[in-house]
Design a protein that fits this description.
Elements lengths: L6 E6 L5 H10 L1 H6 L2 E4 L10 H11 L2 E6 L1 H4 L2 H16 L4 E6 L9 H4 L18 H22 L15 H7 L21 H9 L3 H8 L1 E4 L2 E5 L12 E5 L2 E4 L5 H8 L19 H15 L3 E2 L3 H9 L15 H4 L31 E7 L4 H4 L15 E4 L15 E4 L9 E2 L3 E3 L2
Parallel strand pairs: 1-2, 1-3, 3-4, 10-13
Antiparallel strand pairs: 5-8, 6-7, 8-14, 9-14, 10-11, 11-12
């Protein structure tokens, strides 16, 4: 069984049912946020790991195994002979709970052990032709799973919380209309980013930080797992081809890192524009930011980093709440960004323009933002990992995103890319914001 601080879920599925998997993961977001879930499937295999060993390890640690049942999966020898057979063995020993989820019409009743288990949706009707539509089917699946998890957590002495009010309604309604979540200064339940430490421990650690760094932690916004189309068909050559990317949940700064926050960690302010402590820090290289992050992580025990290019674009687009705007937060650049046409030749305090769909500010304009990835002009043509891509394995330059106060409005588009040298580039138009990854 898994660690007592979270509930581990393994999802077994056939690759041809990827669209069902993506939909299920999206609908599981409220449970994942509020029930300390660790969800795993083979799309999350660690790069460089022996994939069979990785699958077995996660399968053997799972508290629940969700078996996505369809004609595709029942016809897959690996799915049945390896994953499901192993899961059922653990189920018989009461080491895990196997829950079949019926995706589409198939002869699942002829699989004797599956037919003896409680399936979801409980009526046994497949999600693909559920009366009321697939969204209602996923809602019922998630609500039932939530009940199982609450029962399992109570039996194991885990802390439990009632589901969010939105989950008693449609999960789809929650996702579309629920509030934006930020990490509470004294409660990191949304991210489980500090391993096994208690909320009280986090409170003590954070309370001793400088006020500006407390704010940096508090202003992290939770970004739910999701899939999006990265790039632009109408953009520059390095924004093509458009490709689908799947990202695990993470958090990202509501604001750019400010000069006050930089000085609190590094002891000095290197910025060119200095008339307000809430101006974004700039005139810093990518390598200097790595030193800032190292000191910040040692001070807080969090796992801050620069965002990957994919994380940055997903967040700028509004995550799963995206309205497909041209800029981060709207189609009118003047309402969301400081750029050459309205900046008065300077940076501005963070958070003065309109936020995007996730409540993030200045992702278009003000200053370019360093990303973690190496830059490669034709990278989108050869991207290998569409699940949490990390960028090219080597290069000379690092990616910057978002446009800046002295650049034209086209550079403020959510898909626009540029590059700079990580060591030698120190300009008054490049800053950064931070992410915290769950794992």
């Amino acid at each position: 069984m898994s660690n007592l601080n979270y509930t581990s879920i393994f999802i077994a599925y056939a690759r041809k049912d990827q669209s069902y998997l993506d939909a299920l993961i999206t609908h599981l977001v409220p449970l994942q946020r509020n029930k300390n879930l660790a969800i795993w499937y083979d799309g999350l295999i660690t790069p460089g790991a022996f994939w069979e060993d990785d699958i077995r390890r996660h399968l053997d640690q799972a508290d629940f195994v969700l078996v996505l049942v369809s004609a595709n999966s029942l016809a897959s020898s690996y799915f049945w002979n390896t994953e499901v057979t192993r899961a059922l063995e653990r189920h018989r020993k009461k080491e895990t709970v196997v829950i079949p989820i019926i995706l589409s019409d198939c002869a699942w009743e002829y699989e004797q052990e599956l037919s003896q288990l409680q399936v979801l949706p409980k009526e046994g009707k497949p999600i693909s032709r559920y009366m009321g539509g697939e969204a209602l089917a996923y809602t019922k699946v998630v609500k039932a799973l939530g009940q199982y998890i609450e029962r399992e957590q109570k039996e194991r002495g885990k802390p439990t919380r009632p589901l969010l009010a939105g989950i008693s309604k449609s999960i789809t309604d929650f996702i579309e209309n629920g509030p934006y979540d930020t990490v509470d200064l004294f409660n990191t339940r949304l991210l489980n980013i500090n391993g096994n430490r208690s909320d009280q421990q986090n409170k003590i650690e954070i309370s001793h930080l400088p006020p500006s760094i407390q704010k940096l932690v508090k202003d992290q916004v939770s970004i739910a797992t999701g899939t999006f189309d990265m790039g632009s068909r109408l953009g520059n050559q390095d924004e093509q081809p458009v490709h689908s990317v799947i990202l695990s949940s993470f958090s990202i700064g509501k604001y750019l890192v400010t000069q006050e926050q930089w000085k609190a960690i590094m002891g000095s302010n290197p910025s060119h524009f200095r008339n307000n402590v809430n101006l974004p820090v700039e005139n810093i290289s990518w390598l200097e930011i790595q030193q800032f992050i190292k000191k910040l992580n040692n001070l807080t025990s969090y796992r801050f980093s620069l965002p990957t290019e994919a994380q940055w674009e997903f967040a700028a687009r509004g995550g799963i709440k995206s309205q497909r705007y041209r800029y981060a937060g709207g189609n009118n650049v003047n309402t969301v960004a400081y750029y050459r046409g309205n900046s008065q030749k300077r940076t501005w305090p963070v958070g003065k323009k309109e936020a995007n769909e996730l409540g993030l500010y200045d992702m278009s304009g003000n200053v370019w933002e360093w990303c973690n990835d190496y830059y490669k002009r034709d990278y989108y043509n050869f991207i290998e990992y569409k699940q949490n891509p990390q960028g090219p394995s080597q290069g000379v330059h690092r990616v910057v995103r978002g446009g800046a106060w002295n650049f034209i409005e086209d550079t403020c588009r959510v898909s626009a890319r540029d590059k700079h040298h990580p060591a030698s580039t120190k300009y008054s138009y490049i800053g950064f914001r931070l992410v915290i990854n769950k794992q």
